[in-house]
Amino acid sequence: MYCLSSKFNDIGGIQGNRLRQCFPPRITVRIFVVLTMSLLLLCLLVEQADAKETKVKVIASIFPAFDFARVVGGSRVELRQLLPPGVEAHGFAPTPRDIIQINQADLFFYTGAIMEPRMAKLLRSLDGEVRVVDLSQGLLPTEKKPHDHHGIDPHVWLDPIKAQAMVEMIVSSFIQIDPEHTNEYRNRADTYLLQLADLDRKIRTGLANCQQHIIISGGHFAFGHFIKRYHLQAVSAYPGFSADGKPSPKGITSLLKTMESTGATAVFHEELLTPKVARIIVEESGAKLLLLHAAHNVSRQDMAAGVSYIAIMEENLQRLRVGLLCQ
C-alpha cells in the first residue's frame, strides 16, 4: 500500500491535522504511467513548437544586403554577414568555412559579379540547395555607353530608389522560402520602403541649394548612382569605379586645378581605408577632409552598435552639406 499525507488547516484554523490517503499498488502504477505519458506528450509538443519556429538561414555578402535583410527578415531569420566587420570589401576572399556555410544556408544575397567578381566565381562551385539572389539584377546597364571611360558603377545601393528595388527582391525571396509568414515580411518591407522614400526626400531637399555641385574625391569613388540621382558631379584622383584603379600624378594635378577653378573647400575620402591620397590633396589645397561612407562594410564597433544603412546615408548627407556649402 502506498500512502500520501499532508498538513492542512481546518475551518477553525487549527493546524497539525494530517490528511492521509493510501492507494493500492495497481493505482500507484497507473498514476506513474499517467505522469510519464503526460511528460512525454509535453516534450513532443515542445519539439513540435521548436520545429515550427525554425528560422530561415540567410547569408549576405556585404553590409547593404545584410542590413536590408535584417530589417525585412526580423526575428524570422538567422542572418550572417559574410564579410567580417572592419574588413574592406574589395580585397576579401571567402574561406572554405564560408563556402560550407553558404551551402548550408537557405538564401544567399550578394550584389552581383561586377561588384563581387570573386564571389560570382565561387558561387558556380556551390553544390548545396541554397537559393542565390543577385541584388543588382536589373539595376545595372547591360553594357557600357559610348565614350564612357569610367566603366560600370556597381554600387547601386547608394541610390535610395535602387535600394528600394533591392529590398523588394529580398522580401520576395523570403516569401518564396517561408510563405507561412508572408504578412510579417511584407509589412516590415513596406515600412522600410517608406523610410527609404523619406531618405530620398531628405537628400533631395538637403542638396537643393548648394554653392558647389562637384564632389571632390580623394579615394575610389563609389557614388556614381548617387550623383546621377541628385544631379551632382564628381572628380576623383582615381580613374573609374574599380577598386583596382590607381591614382596618378596627372590625375591629382587635374583634381587640384578643378578645386582651384571651382573654389571647392572639401575633399571626401572612403571608409575603412587610410586616406593617403586625400590627405596629400588636403595638404596641397588647404581644404577640409570629410568622410563619404559608401556602406560596403562597417567597423566592428558600428556593427555591435547596430548602425544602419539609413543612418550612414543621413550622416553622408550632413557631410555633403558641409563640403558642398549647402544652405
Describe the protein in words.
The chain has 327 residues and is an alpha/beta fold. It has 3 domains: 2-52; 56-204, Rossmann fold (3-Layer(aba) Sandwich); 209-323, Rossmann fold (3-Layer(aba) Sandwich), CATH 3.40.50. It is built from 11 helices and 10 strands. It has a 4-stranded parallel β-sheet, sandwiched between helices. Helix 2 crosses helix 5 (160-177) and helix 6 (182-206) packs parallel to helix 11. The chain is elongated. Residues 4-19 and 46-51 have low confidence and may be disordered.
Topology readout:
Elements (H helix, E strand, L loop, with lengths): L1 E6 L10 E6 L1 H28 L3 E5 L2 H11 L3 E5 L14 H9 L2 E4 L6 H7 L7 E4 L25 H18 L4 H25 L7 E4 L6 H6 L3 E4 L12 H14 L3 E4 L6 H10 L2 E4 L8 H6 L3 H15 L4
Parallel strand pairs: 3-4, 3-5, 5-6, 7-8, 9-10
Antiparallel strand pairs: 1-2
Short description:
The protein is of the alpha/beta class. 46% of the residues lie in helices and 14% in strands.
CATH H-level superfamily title of the largest domain: Nitrogenase molybdenum iron protein domain
Number of helices: 11
Label the overall shape: elongated
**How big a fraction of the residues is strand?**
5-15%
- What's the level 1 CATH class of the largest domain? Alpha Beta
Low-confidence stretches: 4-19, 46-51
Largest sheet: 4 strands, parallel
Strand order of the largest sheet: 4-3-5-6
CATH fold type of the largest domain:
Rossmann fold
Q: What structural category characterises the helix and strand content?
A: alpha/beta
Radius of gyration: 30 Å
Order of helices and strands: EEHEHEHEHEHHEHEHEHEHH
Portion of residues in helices? 40-55%
- Number of DSSP strand runs: 10
Distance from first to last alpha carbon: 92 Å
